[in-house]
Every structure is written in C-alpha cells, then in structure tokens.
C-alpha cells in the first residue's frame, strides 16, 4: 500500500516507514509473515509565519439588579455598560484577575469592548464582545456573558381572617433577595387598588374587609409585588340562638330528671354549632338537644364553626309540678265478706289522680271536684269485700297522677274484719253413727235443716237417722253466720282380700302382694287406712277414680305391698304368712292374709384348672380349685381334699364376708402347687390331679381333675470350630474343638462322636463328663467337648479351603434322636492385586481389584487415590465400583469396600476430564489396603495413566515502525491458541523482505524464546537500525 508523509523543509525533519519480513519457527512449526515494505515519497511545503494576538475575559459573571445600570466600573465586571465600542487601557485590562490580552511579538495596538442586551427584568443578559488588535492588523475576539438577575421577592407569611363578629384581619409578609444591605427594603401598601398609599409598614393589623397589595423596593430601586392581592374577608354576623318550643319538656314528676329542651342557632360562621350548658363547653354537643334535666334555669352557650361564642347566651327554664301526696284515714268493723270505706286526702302532682287499692286490676280515676282550686281533694274509697283485718296504708295503696308519678302515702285506715265461723269435719255419717263438727270462734248456736235425717246439738255432734242430706249452720257471738255445711247420711259396708305372688320360693327374692278393697254399701267411705306390717306397709295403686281419697260406693281400690325374702329366710325354711287390715271413718278394722311356701335345695360344683396344659422341663405346676354354691341354701364346714399336690390346697379368696359360710352364688378360690422333677420328665407319664369337696349340707363328695401332659423333646447340637483361621503350607495342622450340647428336655446316653477328616492319631478325644460324676449320661443342658487334629495336604492347598465334619449318635431317655453333625471350614490365605490401566483423557480408568482364589469369608479393603503427576482437576465424579462384573455400580466417596465370600474381583471406575489443555502424559495410583486382615498381603497398588488429546497452534502479529527512529527496539508478539501446562519453546529467525538486514534492522537466526506454562504469549524483540 502507498503511504505519504509530509515533513517541514525549514526544520529538516524527515520520517520513513519501513517493514521487515520475519519468519518465526516454533516447536509447533507455526509461522507468521509481515506485509512488504511500502515505497517512500517526500513532499516539500513552504510555511509563512504569522502571529495572532490572544484575548480572554472571565465568563459568565452574575450581578444582582434589575437593569444595565447595575453594570458599572465598580461592579465585578469592572467596566460600565456601553452599547457603543469602548477602548480600554491595556495595562488596566491585564491587571484585573482572569483578564488577559497578549501577542507573541508584543505589538498589541488596541483592546475594545461593546455590549448587547437580551432579556428583561428580572433576567437580563449582557453579551460583552472583547477585541484585541496588533499593529499588523491581526485581530482576535472573545465574548463575555454577564447576567443581571433581580432576585427580589415577597411572599405572605401569615394572613389572619376575622373569624368572629367584631374581629379584624392581619397580614404578615416576608421580603427577600435583591440588595437590601443599605437601608433595607421600603414598602408601599394600597387598598382596593386605590391611588392613595394605605401604609408603608411591612405588616398590617386591624384590617377591615378589602383587597390589599404591596410594592417592595430594594436599594437598587428594584421592585416586586405580591403575585396576588391579599383579600381580607368581612367578619361573620352575630350568633342568634332560640329555643324550639315544640321540643320543650318540663319535669313530669317532682324531683325527677326528665326535663328536656332543644336550642337552634343561626348566624356567625355557620354550622357546625357547638352547644353546652357550661361556660367552658364541657359536655357539649352539636345538636342543641339537652335531656335528663332537673327543674331549674339553664344558660345555653353556643359556638359557631369558627369557635366564636354567642355574646348573649339564652336562658331556658324547666319547671316541675308540686310533690304528689296522699293521706289515708278511717276506722271500721265488719264481718268477713263485707265492704268498708276509707278516706284518701289527695294533693299535688298532675290531675287526674289514679288510686289503686289492694291490687285492683284497674285504678280509679279521681279529679278535684270541690269548690277550691288548690289541686287538693278528699276522696272516699269503698273497698271490695274483705275477709280479714286490714290496715290500708302505703303498703297496699298506690296513688299516681296523669304523668304516672307516684305519691308519698302517709296515714292509715284500719278495718277490723270478724271472720265468719267455719264448720269443718266429716261430711258423711252412717246410719246409727255420729260425727262431730268443729267451728272457728266461740259461742253461738247450731242449726240442722232437716232433723228427720240428722240432728245436731250445741257441741256440733251430728247423729245419722235415715238416708239423706241436711244443711248444718252456725251463728257466732258477733252475729256472723257460717256458710251451709252439708252432711249426708249413708248405709256403710266393705270387703278386703289379699293375694301373694309367688306362692312358693327357692331363692332369695321379692314377694309381691295385691290387696283389694271394695265398697259394697251405699255410702262413700273416708279416711281409708290399709296397713300391712309384715311387708312394711301397703301402697295405693289404682281404683280411686271419682272423689280423691274417698272409697265411693261400688268402687274397688287396689293396694300393693312387697316383702324381700333373704337368704336367711331361705335357710330357715319356715313358710311366710302375711296379714293386711283396713279401717275407715265409718267402718272398724277388717283383715285378710296370704301364705308363701319356702323350698330348700343345697348343691355345689368344683372346677379345677392348672396353669400349664403341657410341661417339658422341671418346674412348678400351679392349680386353681373353684368351689361354687349352686344351690339355694348356704353351705357350712367346707372340706377340700387334694393329695397329689406338694403344697396346699389353700383358700385364697371368695369368702367376701369372712363368715366361713359358702353363701349361695359365692365361689371360693383355692390354690395348690406341684413340683415337677427331671425324673418325671424322663418318665413321660401325664400328671393327673383330682380334688374332692364336701360340706355339712352336701355330704357326697364333688370331684374335678386337671391334667398336664409331659412332653419329651429330645434334641442336641454338634458344633465344630478350628483354632486356626487359615493355612499356608503342607504340614500345617488344624486343631478342632467339637462341642456336643443336650438342648432337649430328656437325658441322653450312649453318645458317640466320629470325624472322618481327623488324623487317626490321636483321633477324636472326649473331655470330662461335667454333670453326674462321669455317669456317661449327657444331662439336659450339659455340654461335652471333644478335640481332633487335621494335617494340611497338597490337595488342601490346591482346593483353597478345607472343610471337616464331625458326626454324633446317641440314645435319649424318651423319643427318638437323629444324628447331629458340625462342620468347620478353613480358607487358604488369598493374595490381593490391583491392575494398571491406560486411557485417553475423557475416558474412565477402570481398575480390576482381584483375589488369587475364592474366599469363604468377606474381604474388606479401603481404596485410596494418590496423584503422581495428575491433579484433582484431571479426574471427576462419580467414582464407582461393582462387585458383580459391572451389572450394578455403587458410588464411592470414602470408606471401605467389601469383597463378599465367593467373589474374586471388584471393578473400580475413576472418570477423567477432557480439559482442552495441552499437557504431558500423567499418572495416578490406586491403592487397596486390606482392613479385614485375611489376605497374605496388606495392600496392593495399580497405576492409572492418562494420555493427552489436545494440540496447540501459534501465531505472530505483524508490526510496523517509522524509518528514522534510530536504534529502537520493536516487539513481535507470539501467541498460543490455548493455555499450556508446560513451557513452550519457540525458535525465531528473521528473513529479509524489502528491508535490509544490517541497515534497516538487525537480523536473528534460530534464537529461542519461551512461553511460560500457564501463559499464552511472549514478546520477541527486533532492533530497528532506521
């Protein structure tokens, strides 16, 4: 490509651009080429040298004011406002801060300025243009922006409107900004837009209604007014409160609090109005309604919505009537059932009055009808018929008025009532019989209305003569006559019967009796009295259907009674005879009886049980014997016989009252014990136990038995154990212990133990007979111990394990006994190994952990991974193992792995990472450390090798330099396509293109440069000659 460069001739500066072709050879055979060198062209240009003066002034400048008059030589702008060009002194100009006019040749001729204006108060902008001119006529200009801002403002701080009648308004304002430094602000108020100045004060007080505006002036003559005039409103009208006549309620009763009234307010600031009967407006409301008042004068205070009070509160008067009173008087004597008169003096309250006497259903209305207008009246009241002495006073007289006010009652009226004589007694008498009547009071005479039916004497004795009725009366000493008392004369007869149910009994229970009474005469019978002392009394059941308590003619009454026959009654055996009797006012006693027969039948039962239905070892049998009275009489002298048991029988419960009598229905519990020995077990005969029971009443013995089956269960075990856990060579000996245990429940004799795998010498040797002094009997639970030896052969080595079985035969005391065997297996010692494996990164390292042969016991090992040249990032998870040839995989993170018995190898799988990083072949180790201590070696190790699958490329970027930069160094940059984990060595050689080695640059040949592991580039320096 062509490139053109311009160099000023007067300075004799030339620059050249050259390119060098370089070749770079690396260990990866990568190479980069630069473009060919461009041709060089030089152009000469003549330059005329002129110097332009410079000028600067500070901008912007802010001034306070409302016109260009604030832009003066005394301001911070230093120069007066001028709409025409003004020439200033250069030295003075440069003497101000940040003002400067200069020229390289120091030949300034003039400095001038001119102002232009934009905007109006309160925001005026003056643009001042400064121009500097040198003696060669060269000029330069700059502008300076000056802002004149009128910040004067005024606001109302507080406006107080007249809230109440007679009040005036106030206005408080606050001025700020502008230039109040000398003399502060001046104020000019006008009212209602008038031409005459209203006030020069800052704030106004005592203002009448109207519109108020103010003009504020600062020392610069700048002015400002309120954005809107302030309006002062007119004060509200006076509050006017009036009472609502229709809502007025005076107190209804003297001294009560039910007065009420309502006040309505108008005027002022309007609703809501607040009403109160207290000057401090406590307990106020907004309705004007006041209730629950006593009589009196009430001043009503009112506030409007602004809280202004009525200057002239109204007064409302609540009145009440005089207290209602009543005075009672009058005294009289009457016979019971007559009326009396009393006097009630009424006064006060509100007419008409209501007088209520003795709880009459309606009150008598009374109005003052005398000639005086004093709200007082004397009222005569006639009582209802009286039957007893009565005092009329506040306890039985009430007086109320039209408002339902209650009267205070004083005084009393006493009415003495002579009771009418009252006849009492029987109202029936049988022919030929007498009854005596009673009378209340004393003295007086008796009268019979028909002396042919019955007569009565002065003692009140009535004698029955013939069937019929008479009226008996009595007049006492006060002349009061009794009511008629009717007496009836009858012909009187009755019958009584008694029935028992049941008529015979065998057990305690209740006997129910039915007693039937029939009136067989023509006179009702009274005061019926049926007794049954044997049953504890008779109870009426039915039949009294007409007159209650009267056995009417032809009427049948039924009574019931019951008697509880106890066991003592059954034991006694005597028949039960019960008699009932009846007596009436008219008829003397009559009797009836019933008999119940007692039947005796003594009996008992025996039930014997054992706690074990079967027994197979020596122990204790516990018997329970239950003796029950199943008859109907108590049983005495109970004898229980049981000769089979070792202990007992003993009475342990059931005699609840401890009377030594087996009561009916009672069950006595006896217990007994039998001790069972091994001899009984060996004998095998079932254990049968019989108990017999007798009593005085049951002489023939009652028996029951309980059987326990003797179970013979011969059994035994043979176990065989080797003292050695493994063997390693021919000639090793295995020493065995053979244990024979009687695990059954019978003794065993004739025990023989054989062992075909044992050496002939010494053969199978038995230890001592521990139980029975070497009686050749293997007792229950006894163990015999035998010993044997086996010498390892080559065949045992080849088999990997040796299994030996011992066999025992014998004869039990009972039953049959199969031969028993016991085996022991000893493994030959196994060797553990770990395979080595090689994979390409990204594939799994699958190790095989193997045994030299099959083991009859589990082998446990702990795997561990060690990085040789790998790191943790070269492998990943999950790490898994398989004990079934890869059919099932189990994730392993740490801990032991078990090789089950019979399994000879385990697969152990470690995933590797394809990391896209160039790296050498790496290795790690897997170590299996045996923790079960049953292999010939304690650990085994395998090596895992990971080969790399990544390749890198290298590139070199081209560079360019400017010819003439003599003896400088430029760097080529060699860059890898990825990160290498090892150093990468590059071999660098330059090759001349259009640039010449030795004159343009210094060449290199097979110079080595290294890209450090973990980095991706290296600088290759080349010396540029230029």
From TrEMBL:
Which Gene3D superfamilies does this one have?
2.60.40.1080, 2.60.40.2030, Immunoglobulins (2.60.40.10)
Please state every residue range assigned to the domain named DUF7507. Answer: 493-589, 601-705, 713-816
Please give the superkingdom of this protein's source.
Bacteria
- Stretches assigned to the BIG2 domain: 445-484
Signal peptide stretch: 1-32
* Keywords carried by this UniProt record: Signal
* Official protein name in the record: Conserved repeat domain-containing protein
